[in-house]
Amino acid sequence: MLNDFYDIDTEPVVQLAAFYGSPKEIVEKCIIVFSKEIHEYLLKNYECREIGLITACNGNTPIYAMNIGDEEVAFYLTGIGSAVASGTCYEVHWQTGAKKFVMFGSCGSLDNEKTDGKFIIPTQSYRGEGCSFYYAPASDYIDITNSDKLAEIFSELNVPHVQGRIWTTDSMIRETKGLVAKRREEGCVAVEMEIAGVQALCSFYGLELFCFLEAGDVLSDSGYEIEGLNDANHSIGKLFVAMEVLKRI
């Protein structure tokens, strides 16, 4: 049944041109922001201009541009979840021309010994969501194509990190003990809600994704630890790492 989602033999019924006109060519690179606090920090501390607007019946999402060094780059505050984050990424590409996306956010650790004090650079993501199956043939995992390249940049920057498999889920309240155990047995070190879908979309449309995570909450057999979640969501340190990555891609 999942194979039925991936159709590359017929044309899409809905085209973005109907909403936004012809695609634009304004910037090459873009930062995908999940934290409202980080987004507000950028607007407050950098000279920003609005270069696009994603429209929806429940509210609009502005796309901004700012300078990092001598280069103008885009950024926006994305929604949470694989389908929303993936669709928004492509709409931003259409409106700005961005082809390289740096995405960073928080996650739940499945192996605290490996992830404690380190950023997580995914190598593959378990496709526990639905969006990715519209953009790539059915499989359990999807490769994160720029994992090694990003790890090289982190090493160059002397940023502590670990590479490993992750799990993308559509429902954090259905991360059962049995599913957590299965993913851990397969080598997953973290769980989050967007990467499989965004990677599948980027690969489908020829875009480049560079993604990393910071673990906040911990999912283990002994229970659920939430103490570090707020810091992982909103720590400004991730933003500065993302900016350095942006300069090097």
For this structure, what is the CATH class? Alpha Beta
Task: Encode the helix/strand succession as letters.
Answer: HEHEEEHEHEEHEHEHEEHH
Shape: globular
CATH topology: Rossmann fold
CATH fourth-tier homologous superfamily: Nucleoside phosphorylase domain
Major sheet attributes: 5 strands, mixed, barrel
- Count of discrete alpha- or pi-helical segments spanning 4 or more residues: 9
Q: In what range is the share of β-strand residues?
A: 25-35%
- Tell me the count of domains: 1
Helical content (DSSP H or I, runs of 4+): 25-40%
Strand order of the largest sheet: 5-9-8-6-10
Terminal residue distance: 38 Å
* SS content category: alpha/beta
- Low-pLDDT parts are none
Global mean pLDDT:
93
What can you see in these coordinates?
It is a single chain. The protein is of the alpha/beta class. The protein has a single domain (2-7, 16-248), classed as Rossmann fold, CATH 3.40.50.1580. The protein has 9 helices and 11 strands. The protein has helices at residues 17-20, 36-45, 82-96, 112-115, 147-157, 177-185, 195-205, 229-234, 237-248, and strands at 29-33, 49-54, 61-68, 71-77, 100-109, 119-128, 141-143, 161-169, 188-192, 208-220, 223-225. The longest helix is centred in the middle third of the chain and has 15 residues, at 82-96. The model has no long low-confidence stretch (mean pLDDT 93).
TL;DR of this structure?
This protein has 249 residues and is of the alpha/beta class. The chain has helices at 17-20, 36-45, 82-96, 112-115, 147-157, 177-185, 195-205, 229-234, 237-248; strands at 29-33, 49-54, 61-68, 71-77, 100-109, 119-128, 141-143, 161-169, 188-192, 208-220, 223-225.
